[in-house]
């Protein structure tokens, strides 16, 4: 029997509450980005995240989620997603780390991820990060255009992400992992694939909130889960990048809730007129 998709539609006031959670996540990620350096451990980064989130009166969304033991996922090099922070994972110059972070504030969630180079990284790795970020923003822009036209469907986002990656070169788009609905729970319907044909799935409607998160590799897309039950790695050992923003769909565009500027620098007039930069 097919899974019945149940999408939570938020009021403008609830989206405003999600924005507050989103800004907590943005602050935590900014602090971790600044701390990434050779010799730092992924456990050090996790401590920064937890301290930042709790100081804001929020709760780390990840900690305890299905038993996950930390406040962030800290995936280094061939680790794609869900790697557990550790005092034994010491960052080295040339590494690439993806940091995924979530916070719950007054019952509403924000979720975002960044991929950061450790010290000097190669041009190839810088390019990998740029391609992932561009694909994420292409997906968000597709949602904004879709709601404005009144004809947008969920897989328009998937197709935009896929098209941006394919146009950029030979990168693997990780299958089976993707974005998701978000709101009063961290993971909700619908699942947002990072590839697919456009014009399918639920209509894009004001009140929807989605986490858009491409995961791409420098090699083949096949991945495997390690024995810890969490860490996902590339089978061929190629380096991966993972980026994510939480966005809300409004009647006149989108509001990127985990971007301090709401997404305006990347999306321009596709951002809703209602959004306030720091509220």
Q: What is the H/E order?
A: HHEEEEEHHEEEEEEEEEEH
Instruction: Give the tally of β-strands.
Output: 15
The poorly predicted ranges are: none
Termini separation (Å)? 42 Å
Question: On the 0-100 scale, what is the average pLDDT?
Answer: 96
What topology, given as strand order, has the largest sheet? 8-7-9-14-15
Beta-strand percentage range: 15-25%
Strand count, sense and barrel status of the largest sheet are: 5 strands, antiparallel
Helix content: 25-40%
Structural class: alpha+beta
Silhouette: globular
Over all CA atoms, what is the radius of gyration? 17 Å
Tally of separate helices: 5
Q: What does it look like?
A:
The chain is an alpha+beta fold. The protein is 30% helix and 24% strand. It has 5 helices and 15 strands. The protein has helices spanning 12-35, 42-55, 123-149, 154-168, 264-267; strands at 59-60, 72-76, 79-81, 96-105, 108-117, 172-173, 179-181, 188-192, 209-212, 215-217, 223-225, 232-234, 240-242, 245-250, 253-256. A 5-stranded antiparallel sheet has the order 8-7-9-14-15, sandwiched between helices. Strand 4 and strand 5 (108-117) form a beta hairpin. Helix 1 (12-35) runs antiparallel to helix 2 (42-55) and helix 3 runs antiparallel to helix 4. The radius of gyration is 17 Å and the shape is globular. The mean pLDDT is 96.
